[in-house]
Amino acid sequence: xxxxxxxxxxxxxxxxxxxxxxxxxxxxxxxxxxxxxxxxxxxxxxxxxxxxxxxxxxxxxxxxxxxxxxxxxxxxxxxxxxxxxxxxxxxxxxxxxxxxxxxxxxxxxxxxxxxxxxxxxxxxxxxxxxxxxxxxxxxxxxxxxxxxxxxxxxxxxxxxxxxxxxxxxxxxxxxxxxxxxxxxxxxxxxxxxxxxxxxxxxxxxxxxxxxxxxxxxxxxxxxxxxxxxxxxxxxxxxxxxxxxxxxxxxxxxxxxxxxxxxxxxxxxxxxxxxxxxxxxxxxxxxxxxxxxxxxxxxxxxxxxxxxxxxxxxxxxxxxxxxxxxxxxxxxxxxxxxxxxxxxxxxxxxxxxxxxxxxxxxxxxxxxxxxxxxxxxxxxxxxxxxxxxxxxxxxxxxxxxxxxxxxxxxxxxxxxxxxxxxxxxxxxxxxxxxxxxxxxxxxxxxxxxxxxxxxxxxxxxxxxxx
Length: 465
Description:
By secondary structure, this protein is α/β, with parallel strands linked by helices. It contains 14 helices and 13 strands.
């Protein structure tokens, strides 16, 4: 009997490995359906190791997640290629969308709004449907925390609480207490059952009022905006990943290849990617100014715009990872709304949504999330679950074929290439754009206004050839 038990334990250890947690780079990406395994006769670990999923997702507001309308959305998802939902846990107002009994700071400041009345029942429903769950946690634009903890907030030179051009206060990214608060929220989201924590607004405000802000040297200690944002990501990743939590972050698409935009918001693409499991550039075509990527009106050409943005992503990450540093998986946000506020825009429907998804695949990436502030999605632009799996197999086949052809071509070229031929290097180019902010309004069931997250829009200049 003892020998039998010993054999079972040894086999179990060999199958599961010695470490309960591994970074995403240690895994091959798998479908969520492979997560469930039969219980071993002898329990080696209390919890199964989390495994990554090739995400095809949509965003859901906290209000929607707690309403009857969410059931309709879940029914629409059923049978489609969508396998993920991104749900507000800490929203744009700084409110926590469900009860967090284990979060002392949340309780202290009364941050709970509790749109989601029964988080346990909701998570059980999502798991039953086989959906991967991502907790969206808005970081430094937190008007609620800023008002409750002014000592943690941005201050003007006269000592008053700083407010942006919408009248909203921001917390200070240099304050360690803010970092710990965000980790606290992320930890509680995981305990509630979320598979991943995704930070948004991990940046500084960009409007002209920021010129009034006074940064205390005791906080900054000589660190730049880009230094501190990267430090926060590194800190939060270390804290959360050690708890078996996947960590991702949303970033402005325009920081990719633009030093000017990166320094304005504090986000350096390849630096941040070294401390994340996933990096999620918001590359909505409507948010690129006329002329970018050599496209007259990017919103009117969704395929070309997404492809160009992701090709730039590959270039940026390739240069940033030359020394073998860890690189996050790229998972872009795509546009599922019509930017009617633009002079030159088109209506977005099934063809436009599918064109963006195709561009993601053609750029060599596999994951994507659709953004609609109103949570109204173009279901006709999605494939069925079966069609999606067939498409994935075809993509793998196509890439293998292209890789083989490229290898053959490279070998042939190497034989004829002269070693004296110098290879020119393309100089880094900046979008050199003016940063502006656009805002859209989401009406909830009771006609309440809800603001869409700010995004950087390049309104002048064009990206060189």
